[in-house]
Amino acid sequence: MRAITTGIIALQLLGAVPAAARQASPIWSEEKVENYLPHMTRPEVEDLLTRTDMVILPVGALEQHGLHLPIGTDFFSGIERAKLIAQQTDVLVAPILMPGQSPYHMGFAGTITLRAETIQAVYVEAAESLIHHGFKRFLILNSHGGNSAISTFIVDRINQETAGIAVELGAAAAPFMSALEQPAVPIFDRHGGVSETSRLMYLAPSLTQLDDARPATVTMPSHLQDMIPDVVSGDPTVLRVFLAESLKAEETGKGTSARDISTTGVWGVRDPREATAEQGQVETTRYVDAAVQFIERWKELRPMD
Q1: pLDDT value, residue 44
Q2: What are the C-alpha distances in Å from 129 to residues 11, 39, 163, 265, 302?
Q3: Beta pairing, strands 92-93 & 137-142
Q4: Whose C-alpha in 93, 111, 118, 135 is 20 to 30 A from the C-alpha of 60?
């Protein structure tokens, strides 16, 4: 990167680069995305308000994702899916926070974790700002499992304490989701594994370093290890009990923090190098299509005032 940047500067000095390019940062790479708040001008926001009162608030995380995925995996997963939704139906995409609640990943460098009270307070205050400008309906897109309870609380606070109306988008979209083909032999594959890697290979390919991926050695307390066959087979009771104790902060004494149970930070036994952008596209399209269908149905049920 340093050599490329130096070369560009040298060409600029020699006048070999067009004037417009000479006036741009050599590392700027973003393209303007429609309905994405950080890219919009005030008149564009005002124009969008004539067509919709809906906002997607992604709730992500900054946490380790093994050897091959960026710290911002969950943040980008939420933001990029929200952008795709907003290209199919008018809705504002408003990123508020990058970090979420991730205390169980603090054993690995780069993770940032915030208290639940901090996260929900920031999102509710952000919603109040958007309500002030005329937005009314909020779709909370949680892209990190550790934020599930927080996302539910954000929804409830918006509904109970403000003039806004909120739903959790994952649950709202679920009835519209097409069936997803499952592996012939289900394998334990969660944080940073094949599924998550595939999604980021599709959503943010330049940030995925698949060559650095390695299979993790996962070691959990024996009673949790015994539950895994039922977890991967989809037993809802076993999954609920399993997740209540698994992947918890070191301070809880449960012995299930990411550092305690995984050699690489990946929580799964599949080799992440099995991931493909094609699988990521299938999973992403399934979610985006379902979310769009829910949003369109909500617009029918409750037209703008």
Answers
A1: 98
A2: 45, 18, 11, 37, 22
A3: unpaired
A4: 135
Residue whose pair of structure tokens reads 């985006």 in the numeric block: 288
Q: Give burial (CB, 10 Å; 0-12/13-18/19+) of 125.
A: exposed
**Residue 51: exposure state from Cβ atoms within 10 A (0-12, 13-18, ≥19):** exposed
Distances (CA, A) of 139 to 41, 85, 159: 22, 11, 12
Q: What is the mean pLDDT of residues 205-215?
A: 96
CATH class, range 36-182+286-300: alpha beta
Which tokens is 126 given? 């952000």
Assigned token pair, 41: 């001008």
User: What is the Cα gyration radius of the chain?
Assistant: 21
- Mean of the pLDDT values across residues 174-181? 88
Find, among 146, 56, 154, the residue nearest to 99 by Cα. 146
Domain boundaries, the chain: 36-182+286-300
Instruction: Residue 138: name the closest of 88, 82, 77 by CA.
Output: 82
Cα 119 to the center of its chain, rounded Å: 15
Q: DSSP character for 167?
A: E
Q: List, in order, residues 6 or more apart from 85 with CB less than 8 Å away.
A: 56, 91, 93, 288, 291, 292, 295
Q: Is 70 exceeded by the pLDDT of residue 236? A: yes
Lowest-pLDDT range of 22-26, 118-122, 259-263: 22-26
Q: Is residue 19 predicted with pLDDT exceeding 90?
A: no
Q: Which two tokens stand for residue 28?
A: 């700027």
Note whether 256 and 221 are within 8 A (CB).
yes
> How far is Cα 26 from Cα 23, in angstroms, rounded to an integer?
9
